[in-house]
């Protein structure tokens, strides 16, 4: 039954997460709430792993989710389910490219989808930002002292300062510095 749920959820995600990999985050949070396959903080971990590995973020997150919920087969199924809608849409559009390119209804739909994409990505960024710096479980328990992750805040501030000071610094160095800070703060 889990495999069927993975197929359905990731097919929907692939069909409606317009705007790239970060647009899959709201769908993953909804899966977390609906099925309990992972927590919201684990979604942030999935994003960190997906960002630091080669390949598209959405595909990496689908694979990661599938493997953690249903093993290797689940990873394969989730990944294929995520990319199938895109393949279908691309094949349809490619077969009638000239007609679609000049169609005013298609142009209007694409114009309307741009702000939707921006909104989905912005919501994803804000939710990851909040999940990284704040402990919502502590908030729910009214543990006011434990709401803020001071180590995460310090890491964020230092990496932001490094980035602002040396903008030409390759992003891999920021990723490695963030990973090192995470390891050191957990020791």
Cα-based radius of gyration, to the nearest Å: 19 Å
Helix content: over 70%
Number of structurally distinct domains: 1
The coarse overall form would be globular
- Roughly what fraction of the amino acids lie in strands? under 5%
- Helical segment count: 9
Oligomer: single chain
Mean pLDDT: 83
Low-confidence stretches: none
Largest sheet: none
Extended strand count = 0
Report, as a whole number of angstroms, the end-to-end distance.
Answer: 39 Å
- SSE order, one letter for each helix or strand: HHHHHHHHH
Structural class per helix/strand content? mainly alpha
Ordered list of secondary-structure elements with their pairings:
Blueprint: H1 2-16, H2 25-35, H3 40-51, H4 57-95, H5 97-102, H6 104-133, H7 136-140, H8 150-165, H9 171-186
Task: Pick out its properties.
mainly alpha, 9 helices, 187 residues
Describe the protein in words.
The protein has nine helices and no strands. 19% of the residues are buried. It is 80% helix and 0% strand.
Sum this structure up briefly.
The protein has 187 residues and is mainly α. It has helices spanning 2-16, 25-35, 40-51, 57-95, 97-102, 104-133, 136-140, 150-165, 171-186. It has one domain (2-148).
């Amino acid at each position: 039954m889990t495999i069927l749920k993975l197929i359905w959820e990731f097919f929907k995600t692939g069909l409606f997460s317009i705007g790239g990999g970060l647009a899959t985050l709201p769908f993953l949070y909804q899966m977390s709430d609906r099925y309990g396959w992972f927590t919201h903080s684990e979604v942030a971990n999935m994003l960190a792993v997906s960002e630091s590995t080669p390949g598209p973020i959405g595909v990496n997150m689908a694979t990661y989710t599938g493997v953690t919920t249903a093993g290797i087969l689940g990873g394969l199924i989730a990944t294929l389910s995520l990319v199938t809608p895109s393949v279908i849409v691309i094949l349809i559009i490619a077969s009638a490219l000239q007609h679609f390119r000049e169609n005013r209804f298609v142009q209007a739909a694409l114009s309307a989808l741009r702000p939707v994409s921006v909104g989905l990505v912005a919501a994803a960024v804000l939710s990851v930002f909040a999940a990284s710096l704040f402990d919502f479980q502590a908030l729910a328990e009214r543990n006011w002292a434990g709401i803020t992750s001071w180590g995460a805040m310090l890491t964020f501030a230092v990496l932001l300062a490094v980035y602002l000071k040396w903008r030409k610094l390759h992003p891999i160095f920021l990723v490695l510095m963030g990973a090192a800070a995470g390891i050191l703060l957990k020791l």
